[in-house]
Amino acid sequence: MLALRTRLIPFIPLIFVLLWSTGFIGAKYGLPYIEPFNMLFIRMLLTLAVFMVLMALFKSKWPTGRQGLHQLVSGSLVHAAYLGGVFAAIKWDMPAGVVAIVVGLQPLLTALIGRIWFKQSLAKVQLLGLVLGLVGVSMVLVGGKEMGELTLRPEAIAAAIIALLGISIGTLYQKRFGTGVDLMAGSFFQYLATAFWMGLLAFSMETREVVWSFDLIMALGWLVFGLSVSAVLLLMYMIREGESARVASYFYLVPPVTVVEAWLLFDEALGVLALLGIFITVLGVYLVLKSPKVILRPDV
After folding, report:
1. What is the pTM of this model?
2. Which of 22, 48, 65, 265 is found 20 to 30 A from 29 (Cα to Cα)?
3. Is residue 40 over pLDDT 90?
4. Which of 168-172, 241-245, 279-283 has the highest mean predicted lDDT (pLDDT)?
5. Taking Cα atoms as reference points, which of 298, 295, 278, 299 lies closest to residue 132?
6. For the chain, how far is it from start to end, CA to CA, in angstroms?
7. Residue 169 to residues 35, 67, 101, 178, 182: CA-CA distances in angstroms?
8. Residue 97 has pLDDT above 70, yes or no
9. Calpha distance 100→105 (Å, rounded)
10. Backbone torsion region of residue 129, taken as left when φ is above 0, otherwise alpha when ψ lies between -120 and 50, otherwise beta
11. 71 — alpha (psi -120 to 50), left (phi > 0) or beta?
């Protein structure tokens, strides 16, 4: 069993990208029947129930008070701010493609903040890879679909920026303060914070009306087990075991994979520009991953 787990470790980033990319597909199936914050609130409640069972089965070690507090902060940033910001920006009429481009700045912002926070020294080839990744993501989104007339309301711009800052700072915060915490127990606390914020938004801003359907039930089931459980545990593992710039670079692969999935499932056309963007994105991630390791100061 140990040998099997060892062989599977190199495939964790690939599995994570495939799972994470399906979140947009799951949302597309479910959102016609439910409001966004309410969908996230129900998703978090279901996820908490699943994690309670998993923690009992695997006898997860409960975090200390300080560790639990850090996980609440991480969850507020990595999940609540990111998911809430993205859904709010789309709700306030910002095209999804534009939101994705803004959030697509995350690997660059994570790397830049990491240099200040962790005193990380990034190689020039890493910076080149990060820039290429951003260019490739933009080309995929612009070439993959028509974004139409832009409606950039101030509150939508603010929400997209909150999502960007949340996932960027949250990734670094988890790397700095989330070490030594059981992955399942830590995730439970993160989702506890997310459920609180999503519930607050749903009860203050939405009607919470739900049209239950097969598509919604299947979408919620996949978002809980495929994303909130499987993908996020893989993300927390990569953050714990990897360097922040490298982990963040995997997010560059999500939009291209999502475009391909949308093409297969919803017959959304892939143009030449989108295909070229996919190639550039993969090249950018390759440069980040194959470059020399990030140097951390011993006292960090």
Report:
1. 0.77
2. 48
3. yes
4. 168-172
5. 278
6. 34
7. 27, 17, 18, 13, 21
8. no
9. 9
10. alpha
11. alpha
